[in-house]
Specification:
The protein is mainly alpha-helical. The chain contains 5 helices and no strands.
Length: 155
């Protein structure tokens, strides 16, 4: 495996965070209008809005660095997330809310880890000056996770 260093290391984790957030924003939007998830509409809309803001801020960082995000670096992560998401709408799934909780928890973990590692990488680049970054806020998906846990785990 090729070792990444410096700015490429930072960009790798920034990219991973970007594509995980993008996947969640798109897929939650897909669920928003399904009658099964009607009771989650408001909290899902808030999560999508927060993710879209995160994506916009990440785009700005890529622009400042004169870099592009690339899905090719994240294919395995995206494939994994898509596989997890696909179980939610599987007609044989008897617990779609638990599948949604799995998906949201996995996405949250990926974005949290990517943001942490990007931050560590950035700290190793003293010559790189960027505005104060918050690449991921755990509250973005935390409210949805909490609602799913409190409402549907007890069933």
């Amino acid at each position: 495996m090729k070792e990444l260093s410096g700015e490429k290391h930072f960009l790798y984790f920034l990219n991973r965070n970007y594509y995980a957030a993008s996947h969640v924003a798109e897929r939650l939007d897909d669920l928003a209008d399904l009658p099964l998830f009607a009771d989650l509409k408001v909290i899902v809309a808030a999560a999508i809005k927060s993710l879209e803001l995160q994506l916009s801020e990440t785009d700005n960082i890529f622009t400042l660095l004169k870099a592009d995000h690339s899905a090719s670096d994240c294919e395995a992560t995206i494939f994994f997330m898509e596989g997890t998401f696909s179980t939610i709408q599987n007609p044989e799934n008897t617990a779609p809310y638990l599948s949604l909780l799995d998906y949201v928890s996995i996405a949250d973990a990926i974005m949290h880890e990517s943001a942490e590692l990007a931050g560590l990488s950035l700290a190793q680049l003293p010559g790189l000056s960027l505005p104060k970054l918050q690449l991921y806020d755990s509250r973005t998906l935390g409210s949805l996770k909490t609602l799913l846990e409190e409402t549907y785990i007890a069933l």
